[in-house]
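Notes to self after the Tuesday call (sharing in case useful).
The group wants a holo model before anyone commits to mutagenesis around the pocket. I volunteered. Ligand is flavin-adenine dinucleotide. Logging inputs and output together so the record is complete.
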Amino acid sequence: MTDVLVIGAGPAGVLAALRAADLGARTTLVASAEFGGMAANDGPVPVRTLAHAGRLMRDARQLGQYGVNVSEPVLDYPRLLARVREVTGDVRAHSSLREQIDSLGVTVHEQAGAARFVDPHTIETKGGLRLAADKIIICTGGINRRLPIPGFELTCTHSDAWSLTSVPPSMLVIGAAATGVQVASIFNALGSRVQLFEAGPRIIATEDEDISAAAATAFRASGMVVQESFGAIESFEKTPAGVRMNFTKDGRRSSTEAALVVVAIGWVADTAGLNFSAAGVELNQRKFVKVDEYLRTSAAHIFAAGDIIGKLMLVPQAVQGGFVAATNAVQGPSMTFSPDDEVSPSGSFTEPEYAQVGLTEAKARATHDIVTAVVHFDATTRTIIDGHKSGFCKLVVDRKTCRILGCHVIGERAVDIVEVAAIAIAAGMRVDELAHIPLSYPTYAGILVRAAVSAAHKLGLKVGWQAHQAA
Ligand SMILES: Cc1cc2nc3c(=O)[nH]c(=O)nc-3n(C[C@H](O)[C@H](O)[C@H](O)COP(=O)(O)OP(=O)(O)OC[C@H]3O[C@@H](n4cnc5c(N)ncnc54)[C@H](O)[C@@H]3O)c2cc1C
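Result:
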């Protein structure tokens, strides 16, 4: 019997195994598929590679503006998929985590097939392994939510991008949260005629309202059809050229069709095959694994981390959760996990990019007396140089403490700009302190200082020469 058995080799599982072994536990890591999990093989890494191809095509079209004459870029999709495989292989090969796992003597079973509990301390995998452990950490991630409606089997998920032989001429994307907008934006850039359908009143509803509105405007300007509050889907049916979606709104029936339909309406825990009842592991109301602040499940010797617990479903939080779960599994409950209380920047590699950290303006208004400052990309030097003048940076600042509560950016390098704001928030900086940092010129992040100076003025705070510094 091993001391700690980790199920799942995504960011949560890998960190859990690493930490457990580092603390001296005899550790086994088992995964149904490849090392790296969804993050390395089906999520951020390959999706970002597709997005990069779209970005390169955009940049190629800009070359003429800078006196470099080339013809219209033409996409070779099979070649792009080969590049995606190259990139994911390269990332895997250079993962220092794999080296550390191996050097710490963790027993790794990759491609073992899905695991299921047979009793509280034992699992069996589809590949025929039977493993027992004193402590178990479940890190099996999530899957796309499915709808119980006729014809749903005709729809695809983002993962189907890897088996297409060409870019579909047209595409319906259902669901405009982070995954849906990335799929829509990427395939729009690659040449598909994309229609994006959102059931709620605005796309990317977890973002600041101004960011949602600006993203919708930019998507429409790039040729995408964006339909918010579109109604309820009744069915999907096959047509000679693809798939038709039938839907109703306010009692009126409509339909639309495309070569491919991608559904991205949420990410849920994939627990059906794990046979939790044999182990005493319970689910919460949202059907994710129920854990306490130590990431202990309802069975005291079984822990869980990553997407399977349904908190912030992002790689850094999965890594953090894996570390915490393993620490508590080996040393007893001593380290708590509360990602919601921490500074958690997030963003999406759409065209245009968007990102956020901290509170949206609406959430901040509900609990604080605030000021906001907005600087547009057409007012900063670097964005003008690079020809990326669309976008803005919004800072949300607490009037009483002068601390930054939130930062929201849409436009080129939004994700990187927000990282800088996240560090300022984590350091508890006042907005005038941020305004005093002489960031390099001309840079994208310089817009933050401009916004900080503007907010400081609104708060009546003194800002010296920096009030005039270029950005
Ligand atoms: C399209 C897309 C883009 C994304 N982009 C980003 C991004 O840019 N930045 C970011 O931070 N996050 C992004 N995410 C989210 C991120 O990928 C996840 O939060 C992260 O992968 C979660 O890690 P995890 O370890 O919990 O699970 P996963 O990475 O999903 O790994 C789960 C592991 O469990 C194994 N497994 C599953 N079931 C079983 C079973 N029954 N038995 C044995 N093993 C099993 C799998 O083989 C895998 O090894 C994206 C997600 C998607 C879908």
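Two things stood out.
The chain has a mean pLDDT of 95.
The chain has 13 helices and 21 strands.
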